[in-house]
Amino acid sequence: AQRVTQPEKLLSVFKGAPVELKCNYSYSGSPELFWYVQYSRQRLQLLLRHISRESIKGFTADLNKGETSFHLKKPFAQEEDSAMYYCALRVQGAQKLVFGQGTRLTINP
Amino acid sequence: KAGVTQTPRYLIKTRGQQVTLSCSPISGHRSVSWYQQTPGQGLQFLFEYFSETQRNKGNFPGRFSGRQFSNSRSEMNVSTLELGDSALYLCASSLLQQGYEQYFGPGTRLTVT
Fold this sequence. Notes:
The complex is a heterodimer of chains A (109) and B (113). Chain A is an all-beta fold. Chain A contains no helices and eleven strands. Chain A has strands spanning 3-5, 10-14, 19-21, 24-26, 32-38, 45-49, 60-61, 72-74, 83-90, 97-99, 103-108. In chain A, the strands form three sheets. In chain A, strands 2, 5, 6, 9, 10 and 11 form a six-stranded mixed β-sheet that branches. Chain A has a three-stranded antiparallel β-sheet with strand order 3-8-7, with no helix packed on it. The relative contact order of chain A is 0.35. Chain B has 113 residues and is an all-beta fold. Chain B has no helices and eleven strands. Chain B has strands at 5-7, 10-13, 19-24, 31-38, 42-50, 53-57, 64-68, 74-78, 87-94, 103-104, 108-112. In chain B, the strands form two sheets. In chain B, strands 2, 4, 5, 6, 9, 10 and 11 form a seven-stranded mixed β-sheet that branches. Chain B has a four-stranded antiparallel β-sheet with strand order 1-3-8-7, with no helix packed on it.
């Protein structure tokens, strides 16, 4: 069975501080992992995917197969980063996404 | 390009009734997936359609069904509504079936009373 766990429901940091949103997964196949973000009153949108290995809005995430983790990091948080963040795993051979419960990130001024 | 659109945006139904929700994918997209979002269960996969065929189904009772038309538009239907069906129903479209980014619609907020 596939499972994605985001241990923190809420995370609050100060502007300029580093941010790390944790994500662990359980999947028997070859995982494809994503981070989605939902800003207030906006639709869910893709932030980044592990296969692209790129930095979006200063965020990066590295897939660690040994620890089955895909944590999202940003060295210096900005107020506009406040949003709901979802880690998701795509099931092999399908478009089905398995989502974590989400972490609400609040950046304090 | 216009984004994924869902209609209606809000809906209130009574227990026992049935409801049909509609999703129009981004032009040219052929894959449509549906998700249910609730505070307790989070985002859960309902089903996926590609070229008018259901490719995958989530762990939901048979009261939840869907279909896709030749123009890739999709509908989902929930029969014999229960209070627990109150949720935000999200539709996502992608260009093809595998390996492509999914674009989400704004959702339909269903309230069952």
